[in-house]
Specification:
2 domains, 6 helices
């Protein structure tokens, strides 16, 4: 692993956080499987994102990574101890979760203007709870993570996914999807500019 990567090791799985690499650097470091995975992607930004998470994962695993995609587009790892994977990226960072079971991750820049769109994704209760930018980011990231965990399209972030607790001391976000069953997510603040919410 390079100095620009973080590893959060848990019994159930693993969280990796790294930089989004410049495209030229990513293409130089990419192996044949990485390059094949971006063959049909024209956007340089999308190519950088895909190559960056694959390189981060390969640096950790120290072997080529074989990825398959489900019908809904979710990646799965064929040749690692952890078959389930979730990937997220913001403008300069990428986060990858590996697990023995379905998992999710969302990474966000704390510089993003969440207040501008808060009324579209947050309920009245969530708006009252999110009294600062970091809490608002945790609510957004929690909702994005739960959306990924649900694994099906069509959910409305404001109506169907509810965040009931954000606890920075314990590093948890709690919420629910279409029910009263509480799901506990983990939260990390890897630096002063990013937040990661995930479930392993």
């Amino acid at each position: 692993m390079t100095n620009n990567s973080d590893i959060h090791d848990h019994t159930e799985g693993l969280l990796l956080i790294g930089d989004i690499l410049p495209l030229e650097e990513a293409e130089r470091e990419a192996d044949d499987l990485d390059l094949a995975s971006v063959e049909g992607i024209a956007s340089p930004a999308r190519r950088r994102e895909r190559l960056s998470w694959r390189i981060l994962l390969r640096r950790y695993a120290q072997c080529p990574i074989e990825v398959e995609y489900s019908e809904n587009g979710a990646p799965q790892i064929r040749n690692l101890h952890y078959p389930h994977i979730s990937v997220s990226h913001c403008h300069d960072k990428v986060a990858v979760v590996l697990s023995h079971r379905p998992c999710c991750v969302d990474i966000e820049s704390l510089n993003r203007n969440f207040a501008k769109v808060a009324s579209r994704f947050m309920s009245q209760e969530e708006l009252q709870m999110a009294c600062d930018t970091t809490t608002m980011a945790a609510v957004w990231s929690g909702k994005e993570s739960l959306y990924k965990l649900y694994g099906q399209q069509g959910l409305d972030l404001r109506r169907d996914i509810h965040i009931t607790k954000v606890d920075f001391e314990q590093g948890i976000v709690e919420g629910s999807i279409l029910s009263d069953v509480t799901i506990r997510l983990r939260m990390a603040l890897p630096d002063d500019e990013h937040i990661v919410v995930y479930c392993i």
